[in-house]
Amino acid sequence: MSASEPILVERHGDHVVVIRIDRPHRRNAFDGATAHALEAAIDAYEADDRLRCAILTGSDLVFSAGQDLIAAAQGDLGRTARRGGFGILAQPPDKPIIAAVEGHALAGGLELCLACDLIVSSRTAKLGLPEAAKSLVAVGGGLFRLPKRIPYHLAMELALTGQPWPATRFAELGLVNRLTEPGQALTGALELAEAVLAAAPLAVRASKQIVRHAYDWDDQEAWENQRAYAAPVLASEDLQEGLRAFAEKRAAVWKGR
């Protein structure tokens, strides 16, 4: 893609794709065109069987400021009909996606992180939901996803004060998986992606879906509902390969079937 496009896509090896938000003049905020471009990138990732992990990132100065408020004032909202806010918030990909955060991830920027499965952040990054301090409401999933990921009263403090916190605090709370030095978040995310790639792709995808739905199921529902995701994995060629590789004390060669 050309540098003028709001979303840049770059493959790293055979199985990883880096999706970069590239609107530096608007602090990587989203208008409608950017949302549709991200949705297209997510769709392409989902459709490519060779790709097994995606990384969503911004620039070294800012991950994303969320909705482009100037565009919004003109009726240009950063959302799509199918995947919702920013082309991802309502329907994240079924395959794993990692947020690599530098600078600020505020408002919709934090909600983008919450739509991802793993978060790698620079130590100097700041994350938060400043909407209430501006007489806005965070409607991109932050107000219902955040309390499921960190303690209730701390999520409430973020929501009610609008004050951002450093990434180091979010790491202490378990929201950020790995901290890096400034400028190294993408490198750290690529390293984490390699750890994901070492696992079997069908099992990774099924495990993601079970964890993703776990908040919504009670125990009885969970025992029943997980079967739909686990059954294809337990009948797969990769299961047999995993068992053979373990017995033969070698690395498994996954085929994704």
From TrEMBL:
Gene Ontology MF: a single term = enoyl-CoA hydratase activity
Q: Name one Pfam family in it.
A: ECH_1
Q: Which InterPro entries match?
A: ClpP/crotonase-like_dom_sf (IPR029045), Enoyl-CoA_hyd/isom_CS (IPR018376), Enoyl-CoA_hydra/iso (IPR001753), Enoyl-CoA_hydra_C (IPR014748)
Q: What is its EC number?
A: 4.2.1.17
Record keywords: Lipid metabolism, Lyase
The text of the family note is: Belongs to the enoyl-CoA hydratase/isomerase family.
Protein name per Swiss-Prot or TrEMBL: Enoyl-CoA hydratase
User: What high-level taxonomic lineage is stated for the organism?
Assistant: Bacteria, Bacillati, Actinomycetota, Actinomycetes, Pseudonocardiales
